[in-house]
Description:
Number of domains: 2
Helix content: 25-40%
Largest sheet: 6 strands, mixed
Order of helices and strands: EHHEEHEEHEHHHHEHEHEEHHHHEHEEH
Strand content: 15-25%
CATH superfamily of the largest domain: P-loop containing nucleotide triphosphate hydrolases
Structural class: alpha/beta
CATH class of the largest domain: Alpha Beta
CATH topology of the largest domain: Rossmann fold
Number of helices: 16
Radius of gyration: 23 Å
CATH architecture of the largest domain: 3-Layer(aba) Sandwich
Amino acid sequence: MSDDIKISIKKLYKIFGDDPQTALEAVQGGMGKAELLEKHNHVLGLQDINIDMRAGEITVIMGLSGSGKSTLIRHLNRLIEPTSGSILIDGEDVLAYDEERLRRLRREWMSMVFQKFALLPHRTVLENAALPLWVRGFKEEEFEGEATKWLDRVGLEGQGSQYPHQLSGGMQQRVGIARALTSNSPVMLMDEAFSALDPLIRTDMQDLLLDLQKELHKTIVFITHDLDEALKLADHLVILKDGFVVQQGEPQEILLNPNDPYIVDFISDINRARVLRVRSVMEKTTSVPEHSQGEVAIDDNLESVIAKSGGATDAIYQVMRDGQQAGIISMKDLMKALVPTEAATREVR
Length: 349
């Protein structure tokens, strides 16, 4: 992964109402969301948001309904204007863009995948996928090959002449992803992109996105209310509540070191064995254990190690990365990590 910051959000506030600047002063003075609505009849959408998103990573922003996640993503391409703060893309202040530069940002630098697909019903699948290039003035003979390439890549080979109503929901969302890829934009915004799909189709789409990301290394901002989806997709996880960031970081770190009762409640029902990785609970060492029961990969989940152990509670495995030992993992440490208490947590490595 790159260490370059692609998108940087600093001290971002959004207040909805007739006099947001006056309301902003109240919020910065310590007034909360409920009190602001009661006393000023203004809605606090976002409060002091500070997030750095690295190039080539998937940043997942999650929270319950009303947490501000969809409001936040719409600030990145200025579909919503902030009350205060800054948004930098490649070091440039998006809020300073004039109309022409803003159009270029939306057409060439950022693509968007919507929850409701947003396909044009009177256009074919191919024409929908090619829409970003058509809007930029490309002719059919110029965009047909590019759109067809991405339709094939998302599993819709031979479907270009179909119309959206002839496709299933999952296939329609594949068209939406192909459309975003056809734009060749370095940033993809995905707002609840898979939440309208059936569970099995949703899993397929998550796997497709991860496969594409291994190849393309896009900077992806993904909005979801589903914790399992967030943990599966995120390189960097941001959890919102009532418009502010409760905790953010690498998902494994958040799981093992929740810093707020809200986060503790949020993660209490997840299958930790399926989500936690060997790298998060291993002991870093190159020394080979005397009674090693074999090798496991550094990014294996703990569930696979439990299955490998066959119930042996004293087993120890070498943890391998690129053919070299990076550490060891004992079943004793593994089982401690499965208990979501402060006593069982340990620093993520």
